[in-house]
Amino acid sequence: MLFQVYGEGAAWQFLGWILVFTCLVLANEIARRTKAGGMLCFVVLPIILTVYFIAIYVSAAAGAEWALNNNTYVHMTSWFHYAKLYAATAGCIGFMMLKYKWGIGKTQWFKAFPFVIVAINILIAVCSDFESAIRGAQALAETGTSWWLSSEGVWLYGGWWNVLNGLAGIINILCMTGWWGIYTSKKKDDMLWPDMTWMFILAYDVWNFQYTYLNLPTHSWYCGVALLLAPTFAAAFWNKGGWIQNRANTLALWCMFAQVFPLFQDQGKFAVIPRLYADGFMDAATHPTAVDPTAQGVISVLSIVVNIVVFAAIIKRSMKLKKNPYKDEIWKGTKDYEEAMSRAE
């Protein structure tokens, strides 16, 4: 089992997962279906939160107790969380510009924006993976163990699995094809990327799950499972071709929630830890004495294998069709592509 979700607390842990998954699916529907919903979620709410974050750090610098003890200030200090929140939000805004043809969203060159912003988001995670590998190596040299304590008080176990998954993330960027094949749905509720078929989604989901499992272990039950399955679920059943929009929407909204309410997943009955923590708990004040990194190694191998296989399939198909996989849409004629295009204007 990947997570420690057994015993008398399991019911609460599964309930927490169901709540997160359901709320993300519903929140995505609110954000995608109307202009008002999108503006509220990705313009108004981020502005309010930005003011709140600035107030926290300014007040903390001044020594204000409310800020120094604020959960966001105490538990969510990593550069990664803020980078991810604002990069995902920028993606959501850009996707709305393309969907509604606002401003530069009408231009042909801006159709490459989805590839650029997704690549940036992936690279942010890749950098974090490599950082963990380096810190794990440093800790091993200094202490004889690969455990290192993050700025947020989480014990991480860095190693070769981080390097392997970081490389898988770089390959995953190359698995995005048909950069210019961006469309608006007939109902004007979705930005469609038809060439982003189930093959890329599978490669991305495996890679990103492993990223969270390695670098956000105490959160990965939610951000590595529920958060990844919510957009995939929507794309599979009623939103063909709109996966990347679903992903950006749910990611941005989850980052906002997690940044303000970190204790939902960090402490209490909804908290879940992976099998890595063989002591059965994770406490910043207590250096782990036991570790089970088996799943970390296995999933990293799976991550890079899946991404290599998908990339190889892209090269094979592009050579067969004699097309540039990035300039041209190479999955035309496949079931996934045609179902997505049937929704386009």
Write the layout of secondary structure elements.
Elements: H1 10-33, H2 35-61, H3 65-68, H4 71-75, H5 79-100, H6 113-143, E1 147-149, E2 155-157, H7 160-174, E3 183-184, E4 191-192, H8 198-215, H9 220-237, H10 243-260, H11 263-266, H12 294-321, H13 335-341
Antiparallel strand pairs: 1-2, 3-4
Helix pairs in contact: 1-2, 1-9, 1-10, 2-5, 2-10, 5-6, 5-10, 6-7, 6-8, 7-8, 7-12, 8-9, 8-12, 9-10
Features:
single chain, 345 residues, 13 helices, globular, two-stranded antiparallel ribbon, two-stranded antiparallel sheet, mainly alpha
In short:
With 345 residues, the chain is mainly α.
Descriptive overview:
The chain is mainly α. The protein has helices spanning 10-33, 35-61, 65-68, 71-75, 79-100, 113-143, 160-174, 198-215, 220-237, 243-260, 263-266, 294-321, 335-341; strands spanning 147-149, 155-157, 183-184, 191-192. Helix content is 64%, strand content 3%. It has 13 helices and four strands. α6 packs parallel to α8 (198-215), α8 packs antiparallel against α9 (220-237) and α9 packs antiparallel against α10 (243-260). The chain has one domain (10-341). The radius of gyration is 20 Å and the shape is globular.
